[in-house]
Design goal:
Radius of gyration: 19 Å
Shape: globular
Order of helices and strands: HEEEEEEEHEEEEEEEHEE
Helix content: under 10%
Strand content: 35-45%
Amino acid sequence: MKAWCTGVLLLTLAGLSGCMGPLGRGRQMASGKASLEDAASALQTQVQSFEPTQINGMCKLGYRDEEGKWRKLPSFNMKLWLEPPYNLCLQSTAVSGPEGKIFLGANQEEFWLSIKPEINTYWYGRWDDVPDVTTLELNPRVVLESLGMIEFAPHETWRLENQKGLDVLTCTDTVSARVIKRLFVTTKSYQLAKIIYYNDLGDPAVVVDLERYRVLDGRNPVPTGIRVTRYGGGHPEGRVTFNLTQGVLRQFTDKTRARMFQPVTPTGYDQVIHVTRFGSILE
């Protein structure tokens, strides 16, 4: 499986249409939030009410090989542990045997990712040194935000636009004014439907589609269908799809936090890469 590339996606959002009531009257579509503060508050309330959870499910990988052909790996089991809003651990077995492992994790300061099948590489870095989530094959922040863990950082400027059935929140870098990402939130349930992350050229590089919300455990519904696609040259270069099936509330102790939400010393990898804002450093 080759490394996925960033690139260009031409995207058109279709407006959501209303439906007719039993008496033939058009049902009024839910209005969007009146202000950015209201929209941010609604999203943050969901984060604050989310409880520590273990989630099980299945995962699928697809990628474009060096000959340009789209390849798919068989579905495999995955487990995800989330302690909002920062702590994340994801483990999966992509192929049989000890070498077929994918590990992904994050805490408030750091992140890490390892892929054993074929790539056999370990990436790691610090959040304050890597502002762009498109620099990894699958960035832990993308997974966190897909589950609703949205942050509004001081270095970011946000703008709200009301569309038919959607609130669109656009995040730009305060200094450079570069568009970082857009959140598409359904006004009826105020749940994320899509996230688009942009590269340095302003082109969509990573697109996350979210669907089939339901309560796996705890109080908040989560998207049980998550599709993360990376684009290059106007075509998908890599895709990971999560199908979440079961959840259970968890309470994490300091001992389990140290085991699950801290990076480990990487051993047995062909490459160890330190990701920084100045580029990736091969160690």
